[in-house]
Amino acid sequence: MTSFEAAAFRGARLPALIAISGLVVIFWSVKGTKGAIGALIGGSIALVFFAIHLIVSKVTRRADPAYVMALAFASYFAKLLVLLLFLVSSAGTKAFDPIAFAVSTLVVSVAWLAGEVLAYIRRG
Questions:
Q1: Is 68 helix (H, G, I), strand (E, B) or coil?
Q2: DSSP code of residue 90
């Protein structure tokens, strides 16, 4: 039997990748290359962050709950710090569209979570 994390990853990656692909095409057609790059960066960040969460969950599955909570908080704050550093370093950049970045991050997050929920329902 496969782990929940593997099932969640299989269930979530396809909706997230479809969302990224669609958003890249949409923002490319609306805002050009900078829109496509913003969509790709935003969607990729969301996908990687959620994948990291599943990896941490799998690694700590049988660990002490206090350790799991500490590692979950550390992972969460590390991801927030990385996102903050990225946002600060790219403030005012003309390399990508910030609206495409923000919208794609949110849409891919919702797509990933919906895929995880469906994987959980199908597995249960």
A1: helix
A2: T
Residues of the chain with pLDDT under 70: 1-2, 124
Which DSSP state fits 124?
Answer: -
How far is the C-alpha of 71 from the C-alpha of 76, rounded, in Å? Answer: 8
Give, in order, the Cα–Cα distances in Å from 47 to each of 9, 42, 66, 67, 101.
10, 9, 27, 25, 13
User: Would you state the pLDDT for residue 35?
Assistant: 97
Measured CA distances, 123 to 7, 57, 62 (Å): 8, 17, 20
Instruction: Round the average pLDDT of the chain to a whole number and report it.
Output: 92
pTM value is 0.88
Q: How far apart are the first and last CA of the chain?
A: 13
